[in-house]
Amino acid sequence: MATNRAPGTVHRYLVDVEILADFLDAESLPTRAAEITRAHLEQWLVYLASKPSRRGGTLSAATVARTYRSVQQFFRWLVDEEEIATDPFAKMRPPAIPEQPVPIITDAELRRLLDACKGNTFEARRDNAILRVLLDTGIRASELAGIELDDLDFELDVVRVMGKGRRGRAAPFGVKTGDALRRYLRSRAQHPHAAVSALWLGVRGPMTPSGISQMIGRRGTDAGIDGLHPHRFRHTFAHRWLAAGNQEQDLMRLTGWRSREMVGRYAASAADQRAREAHRRAGLGDDL
């Protein structure tokens, strides 16, 4: 099951399987994998859909679907390992996820955000570099947090990141992002933890994905952007790429997606806006 999976992914699978096991035990249902049926799993899904969320209300449809997929992978592994004869998930469909496009970050908001990071302090240079890398590459927060010093290549202007499924790729960046990175590296050289390999440093050492997310939230508040989180940069990158008339295939290579379904999901954030702009450019009614 752990083949080519990141440690965090494996941990998430185990946590989700434990959620199923706890439910089955609480309901006095079979807990042996070979005895678990589709009906038991359907009961579990009903339970998940009504389970309270830490933020209030119930778990989101996306969380339920992700948990479903985790446990589904576990049962597929059991079949592959011949621990069970049949997969109870075989004829089940994953829970539907209502389309809720993530709002993109507007150009005006991006300018305010970068203005909020102006200055020559260590934090200002670090945060400016982080924001520009996210905006310019569309990489995931986990990929950003995992960047090491040796992953930067200023000859090719790319940063090497490790994506999902342990698939590495080189994410290119532009001139302004390169300048921001160089300024940050000069400040970083004076940091008490400068000897560590991790690129992004906080007060106590390497920044975690959570630490980066908190920083972005604070900078967003400073710029008047409520609820800003790293993943909005990935949606914004996809929108800006497609709005500029660039190819979907290139977008998939840059972001590390293997399915066009992901392009559609991320591109939905501002699809209507791009469609209106394309209509204006086409000018079909003006040709007659």
Automatic annotation (TrEMBL):
It holds the Pfam family Phage_int_SAM_1. The keyword Electron transport does not apply. It comes from the Bacteria. The keyword DNA-binding applies. One of its GO terms (molecular function) is DNA binding. Keywords: DNA integration, DNA recombination, DNA-binding. Residues 99-280 form the Tyr recombinase domain. Residues 1-79 form the Core-binding (CB) domain. InterPro entries: CB, DNA_brk_join_enz, Integrase-like_cat_sf, Integrase_catalytic, Integrase_recombinase_N, Integrase_SAM-like_N, Tyrosine_recombinase_XerCD. Belongs to the 'phage' integrase family. This is Site-specific recombinase XerD. It comes from Pseudonocardia ammonioxydans.
